[in-house]
Design a protein that fits this description.
By secondary structure, this protein is mostly helical. It has helices at about 1-35, 45-60, 70-75, 80-100, 125-145, 160-170, 180-210, 220-230, 245-265; strands at about 110, 115-120, 120, 180. The strands form two sheets. A two-stranded antiparallel ribbon has the order 1-4. The relative contact order is 0.19.
Length: about 280
């Protein structure tokens, strides 16, 4: 019986991934539906629905303050540094194009589908939002695994979480998208993810090393190195699977952040992991 109960407890991690997916993705889609056809950003709507969801989970007794019963949501809510890494890299490319005179040719290798999946969201955007969820999950778990973070309830499960997240982030592509070379597209995505992981680990150690000299948060070094890499590694094509979804990343993060904040009673929170020290 004890072995059976232990096995059920381990399977709860997989249930948590599915539950987080069902909680977060609809919030993003609803927000996009509300602002469909307007020039407004869905982020404000995500804030409202995120706060509402966090409050409902709390008052119904489904979760305690801080959403302690949803560790996967807690993991994703600490991924802002991952989001900003991709955004700063793209920003460096834009600065190079603006001040360096580098022209970026239209990407003819990837033609997104124009068919709507739900109101305000096309099929390609839907696939990108779901892919973003898995990318954030996989990169966050992989980074913590590399850094040896063993102070979390999820620590023993980081390998399987990283595997599911990275695999889902690589292979989820809308079937109606037109991709000239799918294998090349996926390989480029794998290279981008590996580079992102390397930069996150590198900036964490730089931040730790310089703590006694100049105590700056990890996000400062992420900004410096990402902008620099984006400037020097500007390409003639749009970045492919991982780095071009910064806005969607931000939307997902904003959702989980507001849910956790509401569950805390609007008090500031801090996730005790290596990537949340900013």
């Amino acid at each position: 019986m004890e072995v059976f109960i232990e096995q059920i407890a381990k399977l709860q991690v997989l249930n948590q991934i599915g539950l987080a997916l069902l909680l977060l993705i609809p919030l993003v889609l609803i927000a996009r539906t509300v602002v469909a056809g307007t020039y407004y950003s869905p982020i404000l709507i995500i804030v409202v629905f995120g706060l509402s969801m966090g409050y409902i989970l709390f008052i119904t007794g489904i979760s305690e303050p801080g959403l302690a019963g949803f560790p996967i949501i807690g993991l994703i809510s600490g991924t802002v540094v991952i989001v900003l890494t991709g955004i700063f890299f793209a920003g460096g490319q834009e600065l190079r194009k603006l001040f360096g005179g580098t022209k970026m040719e239209p990407d003819q290798t990837f033609i997104p589908s124009e068919e709507e999946a739900v109101v305000g969201t096309k099929r390609t955007q839907m696939a990108s939002i779901i892919r973003t969820f898995f990318l954030l999950l996989g990169i966050a778990a992989s980074t913590r695994l590399i850094l040896g973070d063993d102070g979390s309830y999820l620590s023993p499960y980081y390998p399987i979480i990283a595997y599911i997240g990275l695999l889902g982030g690589l292979i989820i592509i809308d079937l109606k998208d037109t991709i000239a070379n799918k294998s090349s597209y996926i390989r480029k995505g794998a290279v981008e993810i590996a580079g992102l992981l390397g930069l996150l680990v590198f900036t964490y150690y730089v931040s730790s090393w310089s703590e006694n000299i100049l105590p700056l948060p990890q996000i400062f070094f992420v900004m410096i190195f990402s902008l620099t890499l984006g400037w020097f590694f500007v390409t003639t094509q749009q970045p492919t699977p991982a780095l071009r979804f910064g806005v969607i990343h931000a939307s997902n993060y904003d959702t989980v952040w507001t849910m956790r904040r509401c569950a805390h009673g609007n008090r500031a929170f801090h996730i005790k992991t290596p990537l949340a020290e900013f």
